[in-house]
Amino acid sequence: MDIRIPLGTWVEDFVDWLTGWAQPFFDVLRSIFLGAYDLVNLVFQSPPFWVIILVVAALAFLAKGWKLAVGVILGFTLILVVNQWENAMDTLSLVLVASLIAVIISVPLGILAAGSDTASRILKPILDFLQTMPALVYLIPALILFRVGVVPGIVATIVFAMAPGVRLTELGIRGVDKEVVEAGHAFGSSPFRILRQIQLPLALPSIMAGVNQVIMLSLSMVVIAGMVGAGGLGGEVVASLNRLDIGLGFEAGLSVVILAIVLDRLTASLGVRRKRTRKTDAAAPAADETSVSQKDEQLVAASA
Amino acid sequence: MTDTALEVSNVYKVFGKKPRDVVKRLKAGAARNDLTALGTAAVIDASFEVKKGEIFVVMGLSGSGKSTLIRMLNGLWEPTAGTVTISGSAISGIPAKALRDVRRKKISMVFQHFALLPHRTVLDNAAYGLEVQGVPLAERRERAQNIVNRVGLSGWEEKMPSELSGGMQQRVGLARALASDTDILLMDEAFSALDPLIRREMQEQLVDLQHELGKTIIFITHDLNEAMFLGDRIAVMRDGRIVQVGTPDEILTDPANDYVAQFVQDVDRARVLTAAGVMEPARSVVSGSAGPRAALRTMRDTQASSAFVVGNGRKLLGVVHDVDVLKQVKAGNPDLMAVVRNDPATVGPEQYLVDLFEPAAESHLPVAVVDDKGRLLGAIPRVTLLAALANVPTTTGENHIIESTATVAVEVITQTLRETAGLTDEVEMTRPAYADDVETAKEGSFN
C-alpha cells in the first residue's frame, strides 16, 4: 500500500502559489475587511455601555416587545458585570461584519442557483464542502493569506457561515408559487422585474431565515477564530483553555450565549414582523381612502 | 381573415429528451403511447382559429393537454412544432423582448388559482399589467379602479388578497387581465377552484363583460356544462388531440365520435339548447282576418283544441280555443278577434330550455316562440321539450303529437261547418291564407 496521493502537498503548493502571485489582492482585501471591522467596532466601543444597552433594548422592544427588551438589559448587564463588555463588543463587531459580507455574497448566489439548474448543481457540492469541512481547517490558509489578527477570523467565518444563506435563498425563490411567477411572465414582465417584485418579496421569510442562520453560524465560528488572534470573547475562551481557567471560560462562554440569543431573537423576528406591521399600516390608510373616495362620489353625484 | 384574432396551426408540444424526434414520428403516424420513452406528447397537431369577439372554449379532462395548449398561445411554452399567430403576426420563435411586448399589449391571462401578488393590495394587483406596460401611477390606479368597480369590488381596493374570498380573488384576477386592456383574454380553468354558486355567478358576469367589452376570450375548462354555457364555439381535447371543434349545439347534437358522445351525454341539455333550436313549425295558425270558420277548419285539420292567431307579418295576436270558435260559428258571428285570448306563453328564440319549463307547465298550449318584433317563429309543445332533453328526434314521419288534442270532436266541428256553410262565404277564400301561413312557419323554424 505505497500508493499515496500527495493531495495535501498539492493544496499547500496551490496556497503558496496563490500567496506569491496574488498577495497584493489579498492585501487589499485585508485592508477592506479590517477597515469595515474597525468602523463597526468604533460604533460599539466608543459610546458608554448604557447607551448600547438602551439602543439594543429599544430595537428588541420594536422587534418583539418588552419581554425581549428586558432580556436584553439583564443579559447585557450580566456581560458587563463579568467584565466581558469590551470583548463582547469586539465579537459583536466581528459577527456583524462577517455576516453582512456573507449575506452579500450568499443571497445573489442563491438567486443564481434558483434561476439555473446548472448553477444549482455546481453550487451544491461546493456548499456541502464549505459546510462540513471542520471549521478549524479554514483558519490555516486564511492565516497564511491574511496574516494574524481579526481578518483571517472574518474570512474563515464568512466561508463557514455562507452556505445556509445560499441554500435558503434558493429554496425560498424556488418555493414561490409557480403560477404567480407565470402571471408575471404572462403580463410581459422582464425576468428582473419578476425577481424584484414577485420572487424576492415572496421568498423573504425564507431568505430572512437564511440570514438568521448565517448570523448564528458566524457567532459559533467567531470563538474558533479567537485562535488566530481575532480577539474578543473567542480570544478569552482560547486563553482560558490554555490556562485551564474554568471561571474565565464560563464567563466568556456565557457572554457568547447571551449574544447569540439576542441576535437570534432579533433577526428571527425580522421576516415575520415586517409583514405584520405592513398589514396594519395598510389597513389604517385603507379606511381613510375609502371614506375619501366615498366623499368624492357624493361630490360627483351632487354636482351631477 | 381580418376577423381572426388568433390562429393555431399544426402545433405540437412534446416534453422530454428528444421532442423533435417524437414530433417526426407522430407525423409519420406513430401512436402517442408508443413514444413515451422518447418524450411525452402533451399537444398533438392542434389547429384552430379564434374569431374576434368570441368565447372559444377548450374542453378536456385533466391530462388532455389543454393547459399546455393555452400556455403556448401566449408563449409561456414554446411549441415544439407549428405556429401560433396573434392578429396576423407569429409569436413562435420571436425574441424574448418582442414576446414580452405581445404579452403586454395583446394577450392577458387569468389563472386557476388566481396567482395574485399576495403582498400587494387589490388595486395594485389589478394595476399590475398597466404597471408592466409603463403606465404612470396615477393613470394606472384610475384605470384599475374603473375595472375594479366594474367587476364588483368597489370598497375592497385597499384590502390584501388574503382577506378576500376565492370568488373575490378571482374577480381581482379578472380585473387585472381586463385592466391591461388587451384584445385577447386567456382563462386557464379560471372558475374551477370556486364554489358552484360563485362559479355560476362568475360565468354570467363573464358573459356580460364579454358582451360589453367585446374581448376575445379563450377559456379552458374540464367542466362540460361550463363549456356549453360560455362557449360560442368549443374545442374538445383528448390525449393531446383536438377531436372536435363546433358550437355547443353541434357538439351536443352531432358529436364527432364516441368519446365526445359519451362526454356530452351527461350535459345539462336544458342549459345548452335554445328555444330556436328545438321549436317546431307552428301548425295550428290562423290569420286574424280569416274568421271563425277558417279557424275551426284549421283546428280540425291539425286536431288541435286551439290555434295561434297572427296579424300582419305573422305578428302573434293571441290564441283562440275551439269551444269559443264553435260558439262564434254557431252564432254566425264573423269576427274571430272577439274570441281571441291574448295570453299565450311566449319565449324568445335565444332562451334556454331551462327557462321554458315554467311557461310550458302553466299553459296547456304549446309555448310560442316569438322574435323581438313579436312575430311568431314556431311553437314548442311539451312533448318537444321532453324529447329535446332526452335527445330523441321529434320530427319523425306523420305522427305529430305536438298540439294538445282537440276538446271538441271532429265530427261535431265538421257538422257545424256544414250546417253553417251558407251563413258566411269566406270558407274557400281563407284556405290559401292558411296554407301560406304554414309555409312561412316552416321557413321560420329553419332560420
TrEMBL record, chain A:
Residues 279-304 are annotated as: Disordered. Signal peptide: none annotated. GO terms for cellular component: ATP-binding cassette (ABC) transporter complex. GO terms for molecular function: amine transmembrane transporter activity; carnitine transmembrane transporter activity. Residues 88-267 form the ABC transmembrane type-1 domain. GO terms for biological process: choline transport; glycine betaine transport. The chain crosses the membrane at residues 49-82, 94-115, 135-161, 214-234, 246-266. Belongs to the binding-protein-dependent transport system permease family. It is a multi-pass membrane protein. Keywords: Cell membrane, Membrane, Transmembrane, Transmembrane helix, Transport. This is Proline/glycine betaine ABC transporter permease. Coiled coil: none annotated. It is found in: Cell membrane; Membrane. Its main location: membrane. Pfam families: BPD_transp_1 (PF00528). It comes from Mycetocola manganoxydans.
UniProtKB/TrEMBL annotation, chain B:
It comes from Mycetocola manganoxydans. Residues 279-336 form the CBS domain. This is Glycine betaine/L-proline ABC transporter ATP-binding protein. SMART domains: AAA. It comes from the Bacteria. Belongs to the ABC transporter superfamily. Residues 6-264 form the ABC transporter domain. GO terms for cellular component: membrane.
